[in-house]
Design goal:
Blueprint lengths: L1 H11 L18 E2 L4 E2 L13 H4 L5 H19 L14 H5 L3 H11 L3 H17 L7 H16 L5 H25 L5 H11 L1
Antiparallel strand pairs: 1-2
Helix pairs in contact: 5-6, 5-7, 6-7, 8-9
């Protein structure tokens, strides 16, 4: 909030200055409302673009997959310096060259949850996991293992005690519902009755 107040006083009054800020929505605090310190949203600053609209898979899956394929290709090509053609593939066919099938790449994109840094790190973990198992391409097991490892190494340890407890409670509740549904569906009742029963159990 105090940095925001300084920026406002130093630059906002200057008509020749444009201030643009990129921030994480739930990890940034720009004001202290009761003390009128910092930015007033929609008063001093405005939200011009929500990057989640461009990088969250559920909102625009095709565009997001294309963007991440290009991102991955550029990172790999950069390692080859001035000869990216030596890779033998480009962004348009990187999925078929590095992954066993398209759903594996889609799983990687979804696991990143719209964060390019997470996408690259999960890919690196998945690549070396696949190589350790003697595979030339990344399979679903590698992505699943890599996503879990990245979460435990980078995300989980940064959670507060309260956040960790809430997350665990959500996981327990969801898994409990899944187990009840699976138990109902595995019964010997006819398909239509089993479906209705599963809905009741859920």
């Amino acid at each position: 909030p105090y940095v925001a107040e300084f920026l406002k006083k130093a630059f906002f009054a200057n008509p020749r200055t444009v201030v643009k800020i990129a921030a994480l929505e739930y990890r940034s605090t720009f004001n202290v409302p009761e003390d009128r310190i910092g930015f007033e949203l929609s008063g001093d600053v405005f939200v011009a673009a929500d990057l989640d609209d461009y990088f969250i898979p559920d909102r625009n899956p095709t565009q997001v997959r294309t963007a991440y394929a290009e991102l991955l290709y550029r990172h790999i090509a950069a390692a080859y310096g001035s000869d990216p053609e030596a890779l033998g593939f480009d962004a348009s066919n990187i999925q078929s060259r590095l992954f066993t099938q398209a759903p594996v790449f889609n799983k990687l994109v979804r696991a990143s949850e719209g964060v390019p840094r997470d996408f690259i790190n999960i890919f690196v973990h998945a690549y070396f996991d696949a190589r350790r198992r003697g595979r030339d391409t990344i399979d679903m097991e590698a992505v699943t293992t890599a996503a879990r490892k990245w979460y435990e190494e980078d995300k989980r340890r940064n959670l507060s005690g309260t956040q960790a407890a809430v997350l665990q409670r959500i996981m327990d509740e969801v898994m409990g519902r899944v187990r009840r549904v699976v138990s109902c569906l595995s019964s010997n009742t006819p398909t239509t009755q089993s479906s209705r029963l599963s809905m009741t159990c859920a």
